[in-house]
Amino acid sequence: MSDPLIILGSSVRAAAKSAVAAGYTPWCIDKRGDRDLRAVAGSSVRVVEPDHFPQTILHLIEAAPADAKVLLAGGLDGEADLLKAIGFEHTFLSSPPEAVRRVRWPSALATIPKSPGLRRCQTLTTVSFLRRLWRLAFGSFGKTRYLLKPRDSYGGQGIRWYRPGEPIDATHYLQQHVTGMPVSAVFTCDGWSSVLLGATEQLIGEPCFGASEFAYCGSIGPLQVSEKTREVMSHLGVVLTQRFDLRGVFGVDMVMDFKGNLWPVEVNPRYTASIEIVEKITGTHALNPNDGSRKNKPPRSSVQGKAVVYAKLAGAVPDLYELFSDHEVADVPEAGKALQKGAAVCTVFASGHSRDDCFNKLKTMATKVYSVM
Question: What sign results for the dihedral spanned by CA atoms 81, 83, 86, 91?
Fold first, then answer.
């Protein structure tokens, strides 16, 4: 009998399928309760209403198997007190609560030692009155622009441009904006050693998927990088693992500038959206990388991609399984469920012979969703 695994997050379908493939029985709490999550083999699903997320998790988790470990998905990185309370009763398969708190602190990445090919974004948690006055009068210093980011943000939600002269409250911080390609590197680690599983291009703020300007809306891989860039990514993974005692899987969101330098912008100490694509590309189990059942399986030769489709207007969700097959669409709500403008409708998947071919197929699938909404 497989071991139970508690999976927590705003949407845990991808992590639950990965857990089954790695030999676990998922025990899930999320706030969507989508049809395909409920269909994951052996899974047990509890749904938290959005207005009560994540507070109700602590009550619901009391019914979970006492010996089950916990895996985090998105939406809980900033909930330090909640994770600490869960940690009194359960061990984490992903990074422990204190490691999550430390690595998600706004200035955490500023402590990473400089090295060739790796750059650091300037981060500010406060702005003095004189500096705000200067910026109001004369604009930004040099050509640097800043993003105002919520401390508990995930998936790019709530991020916007910082307006010169605006104060920063305790729930936000500033991060230097870097122009380039958004990428995500995926690692597995044990607190000391770290292995780079793969990397993807991130799709951010694409209007064709209804995404707001800085919202995550997809991943395409494999990301073709030089050997030097792979070394930089691998080095960063080891440094983060050892400095913050990271465990299990984690991802690092970065920007690759036009000179090929990597600028880390956020560490996600959990099962991330890009892991699903990395698993498809490499044929590995991210949650059990030492499992020998896939070692001889060749990696896919095609480009793989996923895109989150956001509602452009408020309305009811159609039966998406009438539009797509079950391997083309996921995170599917019950037909007829009402969604607000900007809410995630579903995730679509495509493969292609090139990055652009894959992207265009995803775009076509999103257009198909919008044609019935």
Answer: negative
d(CA 367, CA 370): 5
Reported as a single tens digit per residue, the pLDDT across 29-43 is: 999 989 999 988 788
Spatial separation of the C-alpha atoms in residues 28 and 13, rounded to whole Å: 9
CB 158 within 8 Å of CB 136 = no
d(CA 240, CA 186): 12
**Helices marked H in the chain:** 13-21, 35-38, 57-60, 80-87, 97-103, 129-138, 227-244, 273-282, 355-370
Residue 95 gets which letter from DSSP? Answer: -
Among candidates 5, 3, 1, which has minimal Cα distance to 64?
A: 5
Q: What is the pLDDT of residue 324?
A: 94
Q: What rounded mean pLDDT belongs to the chain?
A: 91
Tokens 């000179």, residue?
A: 259
Tokens 């009391």 locate to 62
pLDDT at 140 over 70: no
What was the pLDDT predicted at 104?
95
In this structure, are residues 214 and 198 in contact, taking their beta carbons and an 8 Å threshold? no
Q: Which two tokens stand for residue 333?
A: 């709500």
Q: What is 108-143 written as a DSSP string?
A: GGGGSPPBTTB----EES---HHHHHHHHHH-SSTT
- Counting DSSP H helices and E strands in the chain, the numbers are 9, 18
Structure tokens at 28: 């899930």
Please give the residue that has the higher pLDDT: either 348 or 74. Answer: 348
**How many angstroms separate the CA atoms of 335 and 238, rounded?**
45
Task: Please name which of 105, 86, 103, 85 lies closest in space to residue 7, comparing C-alpha atoms.
Answer: 86
Residue-wise pLDDT for 185-195, tens only, equals 999 999 999 99
Which two tokens mark 113? 């030692």
Supply the pLDDT for residue 167.
Answer: 82
H or E, element range at 227: helix 227-244
Q: Is the pLDDT of residue 198 over 80?
A: yes
CB contact at 8 A, 203 and 148: no
Q: Which domains does the chain have, with CATH numbers?
A: 3-93 (3.40.50.20), 122-176 (no CATH), 181-370 (3.30.470.20)
